Each structure stands twice: as C-alpha cells, then as structure tokens.
Automatic annotation (TrEMBL):
This is Carboxypeptidase. SUPFAM superfamilies: alpha/beta-Hydrolases. It comes from the Bacteria. GO terms for biological process: proteolysis. One of its GO terms (molecular function) is serine-type carboxypeptidase activity. Residues 1-19 form the signal peptide.
C-alpha cells in the first residue's frame, strides 16, 4: 500500500501555464522551432504530470470561475511502485474558499475500455462539443460553454482507466490482470481515488460517483470497495444507462424485459397502430410494461406447453406493441432478439435502427439479413467527439502530448468472473445510511434499456428497505441521453437536485 507522503513527493509539474489567465480558451504558445519527428516507439510515458489552466464559464446565467488540472497520476502496487498512470481532468470552482462542504463528483465512462470523453465534453463538464440540438455532428468541430454543467454545485474529476485516453501501464511487463477485469478494475481504481483525494485534500468533501454504461458496473463495485478498503464513505452514486450489474437474467426474463424498449423505439419511428401512436410516449409505455411482466413473462415460461391459441394471442400483442409483424414474432417463437429487431423494424424502408440510440438510422449493404452492418449511433458520435476532445485537451486545457488519445483502448480479455456489483452497492447502502442512488435511462437505449434499469433496482433491493433512497429518471433519447439538448438540461438538473437532496443538514447523524 502506498503512503500519502510518497504521493506528494512524486508530484511532477511538467508545466503550469496560464495560471493567472481568466480566459476560457488559453492562447497556445507560439512555436519558435520546427519540432523533430517522433516515432511512437520512442515516446516516453510520464505517469505523473500536471497542467493547470484557469477559466470562466456561465452556468444557469451565473459566471463561474474554475481551475482545470489536467494530467496523469500513478497507480501504485502493494510495494508502492508505480505500475501505471491514469489521465484525468479535475475541474474545481476557484471562488470557493473552503471546500470542506463542497461536493466532489468522480466520473467514469464505460466500455470497459472507454475514455471519459463522453460525459466530460458531452454532459456534466463546463465545456460542450459542437453538435446540433439532437446530438448529430456538425462542422466546424469545436467546443463551447456548457450552460447546464453541474460545476456550479460540485467539483468534478473525470478519470480514464488504463489504456483509455492517455492512461497507460508503465511498461508492457506489468501484468494485464492488474487492470482488466471486474474486480481488478474496482480494486486499482479505489486505490487511485484514495491517492487523488489525499493529493487534493478532499477528505472532508461529500463524495459522489457517477458512471455510464459499464461505468455503472464500475462505480457500483467501487461504492463498497471504497467503503471497506479505503474507509471512504459516499453520499451518492449515479448510474447512467446501467448494465445488468451482475444480476443474472434467464432467456425468458431477457425476452420479456426488452419489449418496452421495442415499443418506445417503434413509437419514435411511428410504426405503431393509432391507438398507441396517438398517446404520448410515457402514457403508452405503462401498458406495455404491465403486459411484459404479467402476461408475456408467464407465457414464455411455459415454452412448448403454451396452448396454441394462447401463443397466437401473445404473438398478436407483441406485434401490436413492437411494430413488428405477427408472422415475424411467431417465426421467432415469441422471442425477437435485439439484433433482429434493429434490422427488421425499418427493413421495408431500407434502414436499420441504432443499438445505443434507436433514433439514429443506418443503411446496410443488403436489406436482407438478421442484424445491422454497423452501429449508426456510435459512428455518428465518434464523428463529433474524436476531433473535439483532441482539440479541447491541447488548445483549451493546454495539455500537449504525442500519445494517441484512445477513445476505446485495448482491455481484452476482460475477466467477468465474480461480478456481484449490484450486491456490492446494496451492501454499501445498507452500511451507510447517507448513501443514495439515482438511475438515469434513455427510452431509446437498446444496449442498456430503461426497463432493465428499473429491474436492476427491483432486484438489487428485494426487501424494499432501501427503495426510499433509490430513484429512476427517464429521458427521450438513448444511451447518452445528454446529447439531446432538452435532455442535457433536464438530466443535469436532476443530478444537481440529487446532490442537494443527498447532503444531510449539519450535525444530522448517519443512523437508522
């Protein structure tokens, strides 16, 4: 276990530029000499580096001055030896004199090999990438102020696990098993968070974890790991588009639980009959949810024991709610896969449906087939995010490196064994009466769908004793609900309110 004193001794200030510059976009230094060519093989990774820039942004009409610290900080092994360096960006409001009561939000994305780029310049951070109001790419690429950022109420650190963004192992000799697995990931990141909190003197601050997609698996496990191994207690965990969190599903439950997502997608593309299409989305979905739980689930459980007349009745209802034909539903034994749905729903129109956000459509080589050629939404997102994050880090945050920014890094094989992260989170909540959980889901997310997110909450707390500290929020977009401007505003406001509501009054004890 590393020592706090070592943490401070190891700090290397690679460069600190524009420390007094209040502009939101620092002017890059003027080149004075032609730079020598550097091959990737000759790059030297620095696991401990730091660049500080000062900025001002406007959030909810208020001018907010803040400091951005960008750099790397080591991951240490049990002997205190650095084995990797994690790239991070730490935004802290600079007009706060005492941060003892100032919340700290620690943010992770998913993958598991994804950088923190998505939520950093798409969601909660003080700057946004340049996209249209529905989240589609536009040119010129660029960065603008985020008027909905939560930086007014909390400081934020965006963390990139090993091999994402500019995070790297110290050498190829470090075993990948130190990083690439459900529990290895949780263990080393908890150690890193402890070091970060030490370095930045944030032990007194109320602390929150936010994770998106696989990041929800990560932060659910971290809640207990931080509590039991680092003795660090949280006020809140925010799960954005959560995975199954290690809660096992069977073939029957998987088939039944995905139907409400089918209905939401079909409603968006106007593929439902008028009695459903003419209702608002959130007025229509409860009917589908009720059918999925109380009729479809028992019917599927019967398998070939289901009477033929009942089978046809169920198929008719699935078709009615999904926008698919009854023939297709019967051909798939009442169990239409996600891949087939994405290919089939708009087949006659010549389009496929996006996996992570079914508002996006794609064009395949052939109309025939069982699954789309590509993920239309991910291609769109990489189109806009990749140039923007590279420009932002170099030009706005003034962090210069010749390393490649990995939007997605090599983290496989990933060890999935021992995933009980939902139970980890339940235990953390049971042991810590302060701890609250909020889930945020997009109705059009087919990878981590909204109804399965509700199911997570139901199964995570079977006794019902914790449900008053759990909440769920839905948005009319997909996996990254914040890319739609209307949802960006609403979802950030939901986080803002969640933080405020989970801060206990001074002197109120954590007890049942």
């Amino acid at each position: 276990m590393r020592k706090a004193s070592i943490s401070f001794i190891l700090i290397v200030f690679v460069t600190t530029l524009y420390a007094q510059n209040p502009k939101s976009t620092p002017t890059p230094p003027t080149a004075t000499a032609e730079k020598e060519s550097i091959s990737p093989a000759s790059l030297t990774f620095k696991p401990d580096s730091q660049v500080i820039t000062n900025h001002i942004t406007t959030i909810k009409g208020q001018k907010i001055p803040f400091r951005a610290t960008t750099g790397t900080m080591p991951v240490w092994d049990e002997e205190g030896k650095a084995i990797a360096g994690l790239f991070y960006t730490y935004y802290e409001r600079s007009d706060i004199k005492d941060n003892a009561s100032r919340p700290l939000v620690i943010s992770f994305n998913g993958g598991p090999g994804s950088a923190s780029v998505w939520m950093q310049i798409g969601y909660t951070g003080p700057h946004l990438l340049n996209i249209d109001d529905e989240g589609y790419p536009v040119q010129p690429y660029g960065i603008k102020e985020n008027p909905y950022s939560i930086l007014d109420v909390a400081d934020i650190v965006f963390v990139n696990p090993v091999n994402t963004a500019y995070s790297r192992p110290i050498s190829k000799d470090v075993p990948s098993t130190k990083f690439f697995g459900v529990n290895a990931d949780i263990k080393y990141l908890a150690d890193w968070i402890n070091g970060f909190v030490n370095r930045n003197n944030r032990w007194a601050s109320p602390k929150y974890l936010i994770g998106e997609s696989y990041g929800t698996t990560r932060v659910s496990g971290l809640a207990l790991q931080l509590q039991n191994e680092q003795w660090m207690y949280l006020n809140g965990v925010i799960l954005v588009s959560p995975t199954d969190l290690g809660i096992k599903r069977g073939v029957v439950s998987e088939a039944a639980l995905r139907l409400p997502y089918f209905a939401a997608t079909a409603w968006y593309h106007k593929m439902l009959s008028p009695d459903l299409q003419n209702k608002d989305l959130t007025a229509m979905l409860p009917e589908v949810e009720d059918f999925a739980l109380n009729e479809l689930l028992p019917a599927l459980s019967k398998g070939n024991m289901l009477e033929e007349s009942k089978r046809k009745e169920i198929a008719t209802k699935i078709a009615h709610y999904s926008g698919l034909s009854e023939k297709v539903v019967m051909q798939n034994n009442l169990d239409v896969s996600l891949d087939y749905f994405w290919k089939e729903l708009l087949r006659d129109k010549g389009y496929t449906v996006g996996r992570l956000d079914s508002r996006y459509i794609g064009i395949d080589r052939k109309i025939a087939g069982d699954n789309p050629d590509f993920n239309a939404e991910l291609s769109s997102w990489l189109h806009s995010f990749t140039p923007s994050i590279n420009m932002y880090i170099r030009n706005n945050l003034n962090y210069k490196t010749d390393f490649k920014y990995n939007m997605f890094g090599a983290v496989h094989p990933w060890d999935e064994t021992g995933n009980k992260t939902a139970e980890n989170l339940r235990q953390a909540m049971a042991q810590n009466p302060y701890l609250k959980v909020m889930v945020q889901s997009g109705y059009y997310d087919g990878a981590c769908d909204y109804f399965n997110a509700k199911y997570d909450l139901w199964q995570m707390d079977p006794s019902g004793k914790l449900k008053d500290r759990m909440s769920w929020k839905g948005y009319r977009s997909g996996h990254m609900m914040y890319l739609r401007k209307e949802d960006l505003q609403t979802s950030n406001e939901d986080i803002r309110e969640f933080i405020k509501q989970s801060l206990p009054n001074a002197g109120v004890p954590a007890k049942y």
